[in-house]
Amino acid sequence: MTSEQQMVLFTLLSFFTLGLGSIVLSTVTIYSHGPRALALILAGFQIFMGVNIYFLFDPLGWAVTALGVVSLVIAVLPKRKRQQIEE
Fold this sequence. Notes:
This protein has 87 residues and is mostly helical. The chain contains 3 helices and no strands.
């Protein structure tokens, strides 16, 4: 494996991990009362970087883009309302 291939692999793994974190953040914002701005920004950035990786470095950038799309879909879902216990 050449050093260029190692850099591409490191880039893919880094943004794949960032995508997983983006999905977790989007999921947390559904159940909390906090703003969704950071989740939406991170999901958009993930999609942008996935497309860049796909066209510039490696075709496996589609996986990074897919994680960004999943994160964006989760981030725009309506918030869940907490069930109140009636006594």
